[in-house]
Amino acid sequence: TKKAFIFDLDGVIVDTAKYHFLAWKKLAGTIGIDFTEHQNEQLKGVSRVKSLEKILVWGNKSISDAEFTRLMAFKNDDYLTYIDKMDEEEILPDVTKTLDFLRGKKQYIALGSASKNARMILEKVNILEKFDVIVDGNDVTKGKPDPEVFLKAAEHLNVPPEHCIVFEDAVAGIQAANNARMISIGIGDKNTLHEADYVFSDFTEMDDDFLNELINR
Ligand code: BG6
Ligand code: MG
Q1: Is 65 a catalytic residue?
Q2: What average pLDDT is seen over the chain?
Q3: Which of 61, 90, 113, 118 gives a 20 to 30 Å CA spacing to 18?
Q4: Ligand 1 centroid to 91 CA: how many Å?
Q5: 145 Cβ below 6 A of ligand 1
Q6: pTM score > 0.95 for this model?
Q7: Distance of CA 13 to the CA centre of its chain
Q8: Closest ligand to residue 82's CA
C-alpha cells in the first residue's frame, strides 16, 4: 500500500526562516520592539497572525485592529521581496533527491505548511509539480500543533494517518504530526525536536534504507 510523505515547507524544503526573521525584525523595529533570533525560533510553524500577536506580547504593546492589519501587510510585503529573489539553488541539500526517490517508489508526496505563501515559494524554486497535494495556511482554521493541516493532506490522498510520515523542523509541527498519530521525523536539532519519532540534522543524513523501511513497514 502507498504511504503519504508529508513535508513542511519553511525550514524543511527551503530555509525561509531567515527571511521571516528579517521581515519580523524590521516590522518590530518600526514599532519600537526588539526582536531576537531566539524569539524567531519560537515563531517556527506558527501562523502569521499568531506570530504578530506573540511579538506584541513580548514587546508589551497593544494596538488597534486596523493597525494590526496594516502591520501584517507590511511584514508580508517585505517578506515577499526576499521570496521574489528565490530560485532552485535555495532548495535545502538532498531534498530534491529525497522527493525523487519517493516518487520513484510510487509514494504519495504532500505539503503541509502553515504558510499562505507556500504555492508561490514552491513555484519559485520550481518543485510545485512534485507534490500530489498541497495543504497550506489558506486551507486550515487551526494552526500547528493542531493536526488539521496534516489530517487534511491525508484525507485528500485517502491515506490513513498511520500510513503518513511527516517531515518537520518546528516543535509545533512535530506535535501536530504526533497529534495526528502520524510518524514524525524532525529535521534539525535532536534536543529541540526530542518529541519526534526520529530526528536528522538534514536530508543528507537520511539514507535510502531508512526511507525504504518507512515505505515497507
Ligand atoms: C510557517 C513558518 O511555515 O509559516 C512561520 O514557520 C510563518 O514562521 C508561517 O509565520 C506563516 O507563513 P506566511 O508565509 O503565511 O506568513
Ligand atoms: Mg517549518
Answers
A1: no
A2: 97
A3: 61
A4: 17
A5: no
A6: yes
A7: 8
A8: 1
